[in-house]
Design a protein that fits this description.
13% of the residues lie in helices and 36% in strands. The chain is mainly beta. The chain has one domain. Strand 5 and strand 6 form a beta hairpin.
Length: 197
């Protein structure tokens, strides 16, 4: 009986590994593409009184720092009235500066000059290349990375033993290797509604 259970566990682990999406090396390179521009639209249907909100993400100041390709990213939210605001925040999934090497993605902030970027590159990358999934834990405050088909989604969510949430207690941003940022939701997005390409 023990041998049968052990064999079933090995088979289940093998199947889970075989079913796991395989991402290719170079996944993060899209984020340092010169003059890239992506438009995400909110999920609320527009009507005569309300225009659809947009989030425009653009790369600029693309350059080399050592072996890394580095870019600053601009996140411009345009609300239903047409008003624009800067929505970049590297702590909330809307990275304002990134560096990409063969090792992976370095999440930086726009205020870092090249000397500060070079110092950051001496450490391990923020995310591996290709990306690897991990679960939210108490140690990392519920932050996770999920791989769904060709999408890498990163964010945070309450843990199983967390108290009830009175408001929106999740935030997520998803990327693809060809489409860049493809969705944003929860506290990471303007108005806390879902935005998609």
């Amino acid at each position: 009986m023990r041998l049968l259970v052990a064999a079933m566990l090995v088979l289940a682990a093998t199947t889970a590994t075989a079913d796991a999406p395989k991402l290719e090396k170079g996944f993060w390179r899209i984020l340092v593409k010169p003059k890239a521009r992506w438009v995400l639209k909110d999920s609320m249907p527009p009507d005569k009184k309300r225009k659809q909100g947009k989030l425009i993400v653009e790369t600029y100041d693309v350059r080399k720092v050592g072996v890394a390709d580095v870019a600053r990213l601009r996140w411009t939210a345009i609300d239903s009235t047409g008003a624009k605001s800067d929505w970049g925040n590297s702590d909330a999934g809307r990275y304002t500066q990134v560096a990409v090497t063969d090792a992976g993605l370095y999440i930086l902030s726009a205020d870092m000059d090249d000397a500060a970027v070079a110092e950051a590159l001496k450490k391990k990358p923020s995310r591996s290349d290709p990306p690897k999934p991990y679960k939210g834990t108490k140690q990392n405050d519920g932050r996770y990375l999920k791989i769904e088909n060709d999408q890498v989604c990163m964010g945070y969510e309450p843990l199983a033993d967390a108290p009830d949430c009175e408001s929106i207690c999740t935030g997520e941003v998803c990327f693809t290797a060809k489409g860049g940022p493809v969705s944003l939701s929860g506290t990471f997005s303007p108005d806390e509604v879902e935005y998609n390409q």
